[in-house]
Amino acid sequence: MNKINNRQKRKLHIRKTVRGTAVKPRIFVFKSNKYFYAGLADDDKQVVIMSKMCKKNSDEIKKMAKIFAGEYKKKKLELAVFDRSGYRYHGLIATFADELRSNGVKI
C-alpha cells in the first residue's frame, strides 16, 4: 500500500457515514500540491452547490473560509457536515474548519 491508496481507503471509510442533504449539506476539501479546494455538496440530488479554490497557505485559507461561510449563510443554511476526505484533522484542514465555525457555520 502506498500513501494515495491509504488515503482513498480512509476516504471511503469516512464517506460511509458522512452524507449531505439539502438541509445539512456536506462540506468537502481537497489539497493539491499548489492549491486548496473546498466545496458544498447535496448528496441526495448528487450535485455540487458551490466550490472555492485558493493557494495552499493558512492566510489564504482563512480568507477563503470567511468568503465560503458568507456565501453559505446567503443560501440560508446553518448546519453542515464536514468531510475531511481522508486527510488528518490538523494543519490546513483544521484551520479551514475552525475558521468556518468562527464565522457561524455549525459543523
Automatic annotation (TrEMBL):
GO CC list: ribonucleoprotein complex; ribosome
Listed GO MF terms: rRNA binding; structural constituent of ribosome
Keywords carried by this UniProt record: Ribonucleoprotein, Ribosomal protein, RNA-binding, rRNA-binding
GO biological process terms, semicolon-separated: translation
Protein's UniProt keywords contain ATP-binding: no
Alphabetized Pfam families for the sequence: Ribosomal_L18p
CDD domains documented for this protein: Ribosomal_L18_L5e
SUPFAM superfamilies reported in the protein's UniProt record: Translational machinery components
Family label: Belongs to the universal ribosomal protein uL18 family.
Name of the protein: Large ribosomal subunit protein uL18
Organism of derivation: Candidatus Dojkabacteria bacterium
Upper taxonomic lineage: Bacteria, Candidatus Dojkabacteria
